[in-house]
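Dear colleague,

Following up on Tuesday's group meeting, I ran the structure prediction for the two-component complex that the binding team flagged. I've pasted the input sequences exactly as they went in, so you can double-check that nothing got truncated or mislabelled along the way. The structure tokens for the whole assembly follow below. Feel free to forward this to whoever is handling the docking comparison.

Inputs:
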Amino acid sequence: MTGPSRRAGTAGAQSRAPDPAATEGEAPSRPPGGQEAAPADPGAPGGPGSPGSGRTPEPGGLRDPGSPRRAAGLRPGPLLLALGALLAALTVGLLAGAAGIAPRQAVLQLIDWLPLLTADAGLTPVEQSLLLELRLPRVLLAAAVGGLLAIAGAAYQGVFRNPLADPYLLGAAAGAGLTTTAAIVFLAGDDVSLVIPAAAFAGAVGGVLLAYTLGNVAGRGGGTATLVLAGVAVSSFLTAGQTFVQQLGVDELERIYAWMLGDVGGGWEKLALAAPYAAVSVGVLLLHGRVLDVLSVGDDEATGLGLNAARARLAVLLAASLATAAAVAVSGLIGFVGIVVPHVVRRLAGGSYRVVLPLSLLGGAAFLVLADVIARTVLAPAELPIGVVTAFVGAPFFVAVLRMTRGEGA
Amino acid sequence: MRPVRTVLAGALLGALTLAGCGQSTTTASQSGSASPSTAAPAPGFPVTVEAGNGPVTIGARPERIVSLSPTATETLFAVGAGSQVVAVDDQSNHPAEAPRTDLSGFKPNAEAVIAHKPDLVVLANDTDGIVAELTEVGVPVLLEPAAAKLDEAYDQITDLGAATGNAAGAEQVVAGMKKKIEQAVAAAPGDAKLTYYHELDTTPYSVTSSTFIGQVYALFGLTNIADKAPDLAGGYPKLSAEFVAKADPDLIFLADTKCCGQSRDTLAERPGWSKLSAVTGDRVVPLDDDVASRWGPRVADLAQQVGEAVRKAAAE
């Protein structure tokens, strides 16, 4: 992997000269939606509808003959299926819970809240505020976090061309773990409910930036292997720091672990905290489906097709890391979603990133909503940490999907 | 320190083990401690005390005690052994005159303990084989694990009194505690049929009636909303915030005032909790986190605080 990627640095630089238009349009905040189609279809750049997140008909279907499946964009069938799954999960999430409100009453109450409709659910004010302030935001937060982690995981897997990549690969989890532990230990005695999201967000972003900087210093040219190793080193380093800080405050162990195992409670406040970062990162990632498809054939080929591989990778990495940081900030470290959901999607719907990214978003959301339902009902009125559920339920499910689709190889 | 949390987190010490040790202590120590208190108070040595680590014989009155348990520290000072204590662990914050060091009861270091040249070490958790290590070098060790019942707490106080030559002091402390608790229970109406929720942290972790603190509440005839949690969730279930809101307990006891700055005001700001009757009706009782998670002499003060709250709530 090092060979081609090292060459990509120089090749990428050369490619900038003949294709200035591409370089201009490529700022991290404004992703090159249609630009990678340029080599295959010179008429396309800037053309109407080209940055349409992959749903537009694919003009460059012939450009990567090595992988016919990638030629297919997102078809309506799988998309509707994923949307249906998410809706079903949200419904289950809203109707199930520890409080023992009858599903019928919950449905009536939800109808009552819709504009222009009234229905008498017969719920007390406490029960109403419970539904509106606890359960509804919790279900939505679970969906948001699941979607963010899954799409970020898919993006990482694409950037690193590594099926084992997950959103925490570059030190986001270790960084957030360190800063959150520090907040809990050093601010013991204060109400830290709003400090923790900020600390976790800063730690996640900081961890990734540290890994990225280190990776670039160690191996110039944006090689992915060096970057992965830098991520491993940074993660170990930050985790050691986290363990040390934790030792200073053994008293707070339980709170530290509770955060690490994940929690999607917290009301509208947390949802609002994550929303802006989630919107930006998801938007950027969805527009990069084709870029990841091109990158997946190798840096040389990508360069040959007019793509600045190193730069495209950075844009995707930044967006995916932002998504991860937003999720970690409001929910702690929930494992398994980010690595497995993209694989399930790939197995069931095809390997093109124009398919994998949006369907991972929806599938991850549905998966985490259901995982949270299990977490808060199986021991009701006690709860299980959601991180326990994702792996415990998700791993057998994943194996089942692998078996069902045996031989199809993703 | 809040040993409740530590025990929780260090799942190594299963609740069963603790309860088992505690019970053997109960029966044996009463006979063991009876002799020194009835015999001449001053010499009273050698004495054999039944602790969590089996019978321990102490040859002479210890003068260099190291305590790695905040509860034991409180007890030692309460029974009059304070002047014999040379070092206590980093979490032993009560009483203020206790010689606090950076020794850790959570991750104990045998060499650091031995450096204080102790002639008796008291601890609550046998982490990393510390008891065996200290016993090996000839230091008598008393393991006094978290009590599961009030009687076990009394026994531990009696044990520590006997082991340090303060049997009479211990007897006084226990009698005083019993009297305080009886008075608190008698003063509170027993038929108020009140429900309560005891919060350990904002997650929110709670306790069931099977825990030590849960039994204190049970003395006042209070019903614990956390008892609805299945046994599988353990004595310290992480409750659903939804469930607490729906259960709408009459009384809320906060044992996370020191760790997490919680109060009636912060509860009112939590999603879905602002309309709880305990919040609107001012029946949120802030406890001292430390007192609420230890099983030492200050349990009696806690019982008084609970009794006071019950009396106020029942009068409404």
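DSSP finds 14 helices and ten strands in chain B.

Cheers,
M.
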